[in-house]
Amino acid sequence: METVANLLGGFATVLSPVNLLYALAGVLIGSAVGVLPGIGPAMAVALLLPVTYGMEPTAAFIMFAGIYYGAMFGGAITSILLNTPGESASVVTAIEGNLMAKRGRAAQALATAVIGSFVASTIGTALLAFLAPVVVDFAVRLGAPAYFAIMVLALTTVTAVIGSSRIRGFSALAIGLAIGLVGIDTISGQQRLTFGVPQLADGIDIVVVAVAVFAVGEALWVGAHLRGTPPAPTPVGTPWMRREDWRRSWRPWLRGVLIGFPMGALPAGGAEIPTVISYATEKRLAGRHGEFGRGAIEGVAGPEATNKGAAAGSFVPMLSLGLPANAIGAVMLAAFTQFGIQPGPLLFERESDLVWALIASLFLGNVLLLLLNLPLAPVWARLLRIPRPYLYAGILFFASLGAFAVNFQPVDLVILLALGLLGFLMRRFGLPVLPLILGVILGPMAEEQLRRTFQLSHGEVSGLWSEPVAVVLYAVAALVLLWPLVGARLRRRRAPAA
């Protein structure tokens, strides 16, 4: 009952006229972000971080949540119409969705994606509301050794899973940890990696890092690869579904939530892997007589529901443990830091009104997105005709303006350009961006918990595994790191026998 009461209080906050406008603005921006290829929700929130300095934290996070969910909705539109995923989590949707569009069933594909997204997001947000406090009750009992182990596990699993190779992933993580060390050591008072620049004594602002790596790096990368013009949009028509389409869609919607929510709640979560699992599951269940490969509606309904279930699940570790499950979670954690709010288990206690307003805004955003995306699908498709040089020139302009607005120091523009070039080079050589952002955010936190652990154990290394939870987490991290080696050895042993 306490959860229901808190949720009703959150709705009371969200339904104020001002917050309603911010929620509407968030879903509109998010839908546009999802439609435009190459611009993800993490980049959009990173660009808006400096703009929200003067806003109330509750209003800012209501808008950010709307952007996140809106981008997940909008990414399906280009996947279906143009075979061009606007968001990485919508890649699987393009497989069957574009085939449906080529068969003249774009309306049905869009409808099952939008309605399925609404169903999955609503169920996933309800699970978030009831499960996140349970995770918090467990987390407040943990000590510094367990928290350090959680951060090690998060950094290890995300870095091991993201990217084309583990060497690239851990290289990106090392860069992020190094950036997080810049500034004055809080214990010794010594300057670290400042190179004699006094403006770096306070460290590099996470807003500047996020804007540079996401926005500037992506803009430079796209600018270096501009070729041709986007194809003409496919006619959309009026989204509607026949009785047969409803019958074939509702089970994949429910299965999508069951697959997406728990995997999205993992520190190494995200929606890419569960959407692939959902597609494979629906294809296997359809059997030989299914329409997979010719435009199966199940191949759109399942992955889209999984996508939105994973999006809801990603808020569980972010709100309850202060650990991001994906890039947007990392940028939203930076937003908490920007407003002077410490994310973690005490967030529900210290900022209860903000957290429950944020969760309530997710329910409201689902309704707004359902009402907006069905009639506005043709409009979003036309946005793809914006010339990309103009689009990314605008991004660079607002990125520079936002970075300068952080401290009003010209040195931030130099840092922005340098880190933007770093983001470009990371894309060039296949280094994932997410481990770098995680290193910048979680690195200082992990250092603090590590030092606190050694203080409690009087410098004994055994203090790192003095709690049972820490031992389990280290074992899981070791398993994640060693499993590829063990699996390769097992395959080599089986090969001679075969």
TrEMBL record:
<dbReference type="InterPro" id="IPR002823">
    <property type="entry name" value="DUF112_TM"/>
</dbReference>
<keyword id="KW-0812">Transmembrane</keyword>
<keyword id="KW-0472">Membrane</keyword>
<feature type="transmembrane region" description="Helical">
    <location>
        <begin position="200"/>
        <end position="224"/>
    </location>
</feature>
<feature type="transmembrane region" description="Helical">
    <location>
        <begin position="144"/>
        <end position="163"/>
    </location>
</feature>
<dbReference type="Pfam" id="PF01970">
    <property type="entry name" value="TctA"/>
</dbReference>
<feature type="transmembrane region" description="Helical">
    <location>
        <begin position="169"/>
        <end position="188"/>
    </location>
</feature>
<feature type="transmembrane region" description="Helical">
    <location>
        <begin position="61"/>
        <end position="82"/>
    </location>
</feature>
<keyword id="KW-1133">Transmembrane helix</keyword>
<feature type="transmembrane region" description="Helical">
    <location>
        <begin position="466"/>
        <end position="486"/>
    </location>
</feature>
<feature type="transmembrane region" description="Helical">
    <location>
        <begin position="20"/>
        <end position="49"/>
    </location>
</feature>
<feature type="transmembrane region" description="Helical">
    <location>
        <begin position="392"/>
        <end position="422"/>
    </location>
</feature>
<feature type="transmembrane region" description="Helical">
    <location>
        <begin position="353"/>
        <end position="372"/>
    </location>
</feature>
<protein>
    <submittedName>
        <fullName>Putative tricarboxylic transport membrane protein</fullName>
    </submittedName>
</protein>
<feature type="transmembrane region" description="Helical">
    <location>
        <begin position="109"/>
        <end position="132"/>
    </location>
</feature>
<feature type="transmembrane region" description="Helical">
    <location>
        <begin position="323"/>
        <end position="341"/>
    </location>
</feature>
<feature type="domain" description="DUF112">
    <location>
        <begin position="20"/>
        <end position="438"/>
    </location>
</feature>
